[in-house]
């Protein structure tokens, strides 16, 4: 099923094909988990959000319409909304864990990279929610501005404004540290 298109995969999921759903999870888990982790700030909450995202995809597969929105955009929108809902129900955490798995790096380089990662992560947590999400979608997830705008349900121009304000605030925060 590796060569199966997203559209074909979702058609099969809509017909309650468990194998297709399993393949969909395999295909998108590695994209959604880092996104949720950066938004939620801890692995446990991120895993809960990603699990609920896929449960909702299974339950609501019929609501996805090919050609209207790309599957990756739809999945990210579901995950984003779940992250926001979860953060509103809970007190936001400032904890942020990011692994630096470069075996060739020296201990000193790893320590510097970890410190920089922690500094960037801490700065990200202080951003306004939509600015943070815009930056994560475009810079960490590698989505286009159009895709990120669809996920946030804003125009491309509004997304670009969020990105500009977020970058400006990040530069300010990082220059102060």
Summarize, please:
The chain has 177 residues and is mainly α.
Characterize the structure shown.
This protein is mostly helical. It has 2 domains: 97 residues, Rna Polymerase Sigma Factor, Chain: A (Orthogonal Bundle); 74 residues, Winged helix-like DNA-binding domain superfamily/Winged helix DNA-binding domain (Arc Repressor Mutant, subunit A, Orthogonal Bundle). The N and C termini lie far apart (48 Å). The radius of gyration is 17 Å and the shape is globular. Helix 2 crosses helix 6. About 8% of the residues have low confidence. It has 8 helices and no strands.
Indicate the mean pLDDT: 84
CATH class of the largest domain: Mainly Alpha
Order of helices and strands: HHHHHHHH
Shape: globular
Number of distinct helices: 8
Write down the domain tally: 2
Q: How can the largest sheet be summarized?
A: none
Structural class assignment: mainly alpha
How far do the termini sit from each other?
A: 48 Å
User: What is the alpha-carbon Rg in Å?
Assistant: 17 Å
CATH superfamily of the largest domain: RNA polymerase sigma factor, region 2, helix turn helix motif
CATH architecture of the largest domain: Orthogonal Bundle
Strand content: under 5%
Helix content class: over 70%
**CATH third-tier fold name of the largest domain:** Rna Polymerase Sigma Factor, Chain: A
Low-pLDDT runs of 5+ residues are 92-105
The count of DSSP E runs of length 2 or more, i.e. the number of strands, is 0
Quaternary structure of the protein: single chain
């Amino acid at each position: 099923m590796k060569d199966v298109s997203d559209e074909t995969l979702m058609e099969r999921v809509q017909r309650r094909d468990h194998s297709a759903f399993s393949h969909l999870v395999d295909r998108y888990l590695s994209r959604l988990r880092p996104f949720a982790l950066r938004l939620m700030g801890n692995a446990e909450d991120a895993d809960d959000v990603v699990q609920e995202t896929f449960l909702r995809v299974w339950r609501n597969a019929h609501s996805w319409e090919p050609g209207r929105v790309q599957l990756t955009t739809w999945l990210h929108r579901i995950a984003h909304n779940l992250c926001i809902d979860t953060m509103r129900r809970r007190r936001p955490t400032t904890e942020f864990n990011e692994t630096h798995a470069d075996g060739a790096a020296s201990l000193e380089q790893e320590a510097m990279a970890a410190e920089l990662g922690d500094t960037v992560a801490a700065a990200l947590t202080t951003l306004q929610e939509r600015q943070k999400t815009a930056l994560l979608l475009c810079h960490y997830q590698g989505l286009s501005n159009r895709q990120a705008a669809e996920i946030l349900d804003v125009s491309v121009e509004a997304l670009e404004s969020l990105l500009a304000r977020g970058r400006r605030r990040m530069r300010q925060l990082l220059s102060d540290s």
